[in-house]
């Protein structure tokens, strides 16, 4: 059954676990996530970016999510808009059956320009008011995602450069977070702590100077009842980098967010953990492997079945390590 983000994260908070939110663009990613959830009895957050909506189409996504919910009747599913850039994106998502939306007002609607605090408060408050009228949840974002090493944003919504960012912008201010939640009434708050989107987050295994878990701790201290969201939370596992590079890939060595840091975050109020890159790498690693090992193969299913299996393994591991398993 479809449920809201608020329902899901309230339960997660009461029981002290976190929920990974996986991006989907197609049937195979949806099936891999639901199969993993069924195997360990975990509730699910599926999220679609604006890019996913234009890739699959709103009607296709709506029916796909309905089909997944029907196929796995015992698994609660929240369908969430990832990085909504304005009211239109958020409200059309709800119209197409999404039970939750992210209004990302940390950037202007072009998703390239850091927004003012007042802009962020105003647009997030307006979206939250509308969404709550019709029973949908809202995630806001305060602080801009990006690297504390370089000041670069990474791939915020895949739409390109944001320009150099200061530490002030890259780390959410705890006092401002209190004011933001009070004024917007958002159901969950995405914070910035040095993670960024995509595979190239850190040039070394991150320590406290470049992955500021202390920022999360400080926010949780002031906002103990707010559901916190970590974006850019792929771990970019070495095993998947090796899988891709062993079969003709050319991904430079890189480091993601260690799963044990996310586990620490969950103890500090992190309830939703956004993961896209790891799932992409799992599938693509198998595409490359099959293409190299069986150059005579041309049935897409022979690529997609191992790709789904690799993604299912990854997803199941996150359900287990975040404590989501057993809570469906
Ligand atoms: O926020 C970024 C997510 O990984 C979605 O990426 O916009 O390429 O679908 P996308
Ligand atoms: P990753 O690129 O680390 O998977 O982050 C995904 C994300 O934050 C989607 O909103
Ligand atoms: Na989101
Ligand atoms: Zn994100």
TrEMBL record:
Q: Which InterPro entries match?
A: Aldolase_TIM, Class_II_FBP_aldolase, FBA_II, Fruct_bisP_Calv
Give a yes or no for keyword Zinc in this entry: yes
User: What does the note under cofactor report?
Assistant: Binds 2 Zn(2+) ions per subunit. One is catalytic and the other provides a structural contribution.
Q: Tell me which residues bind dihydroxyacetone phosphate.
A: 198, 232-234, 274-277
- Which residues are noted in the entry as Zn(2+) 1-binding? 83, 197, 231
Q: Which reaction does it catalyse?
A: beta-D-fructose 1,6-bisphosphate = D-glyceraldehyde 3-phosphate + dihydroxyacetone phosphate
- The answer, when asked if Lyase is one of the entry's keywords, is yes
Domain of life the protein comes from: Bacteria
GO BP annotations, alphabetical order: glycolytic process; reductive pentose-phosphate cycle
Q: Which SUPFAM superfamilies match?
A: Aldolase
Q: Which cofactor does it need?
A: Zn(2+)
NCBIfam families tied to this protein:
cbbA, FruBisAldo_II_B
Q: Which family does it belong to?
A: Belongs to the class II fructose-bisphosphate aldolase family.
Q: What does this protein do?
A: Catalyzes the aldol condensation of dihydroxyacetone phosphate (DHAP or glycerone-phosphate) with glyceraldehyde 3-phosphate (G3P) to form fructose 1,6-bisphosphate (FBP) in gluconeogenesis and the reverse reaction in glycolysis.
The protein's name is: Fructose-1,6-bisphosphate aldolase
**What organism does the record attribute this protein to?**
Actibacterium lipolyticum
Q: Which gene encodes it?
A: fbaA
